[in-house]
Amino acid sequence: MKKSFAGKWVVGALTASLAAAPVFANQPDFAHISTTGYGEIQAKPDMAEFSVRVVQSQMDADQAKQGVDSVVDKFLDGLTKNGIDKADIQSSNLYLSPQYHYPEKGKPELIGYRASRTVTVQVMDLDKLNNYLDLALESGINQVDNIQLKVKDEGQYQEAARMAAIKDAQSKASSLAKGFEQQLGNVWRIEYRQQMNQPVVMRAMAMDSKAESNSYQDSVITIRDRVDVTYRIGE
């Protein structure tokens, strides 16, 4: 099945240079042109990953543990019943720490125990993201650590951005050679510098109110790539 890209081509105007420009660490000893090509693809998110946490403080360590485990178990059961594959759920181990009061004088006083667990969920149907966040709230989860918006076929978008970067480098080299009345020769060296792509990250929030329900619908993910190329000239 043929797939189309949910975005538009964007190629940045970037500098290119003749011979002496320090694009590469080791410069060749013949006439050349070094160019840097950049490409970008803008894509609409179609999946998400979110991490939520339940935190409870109790005087007794076992009570704190049981309270947190009960909330997590309820949330995990609700996720599977609502169509989330178990492979798309990660649940951390319990973190339990004693809490102390430190008076100005005297020894620290134990005032209870703080227990917490984190659950990370990958959502393949973005339209259901809010339903799963509501389920977290209903289960007793009291904190959202983050929500990341992503694309499923990032590899294809990355390939498209890479081809845009290659075309950008070629276009600059041809333009420079023509402008300086030089004959553009073969490629002498290629250095690939893939850019780090960041998903759209929504702000962390407390679960005392519902997440902003539609704040992700207009979000755009920018996928970038870069290539450095050196051409021989005058041959």
From TrEMBL:
<feature type="signal peptide">
    <location>
        <begin position="1"/>
        <end position="25"/>
    </location>
</feature>
<dbReference type="InterPro" id="IPR052022">
    <property type="entry name" value="26kDa_periplasmic_antigen"/>
</dbReference>
<dbReference type="InterPro" id="IPR007497">
    <property type="entry name" value="SIMPL/DUF541"/>
</dbReference>
<keyword id="KW-0732">Signal</keyword>
<dbReference type="Pfam" id="PF04402">
    <property type="entry name" value="SIMPL"/>
</dbReference>
<dbReference type="GO" id="GO:0006974">
    <property type="term" value="P:DNA damage response"/>
</dbReference>
<protein>
    <recommendedName>
        <fullName>Oxidative stress defense protein</fullName>
    </recommendedName>
</protein>
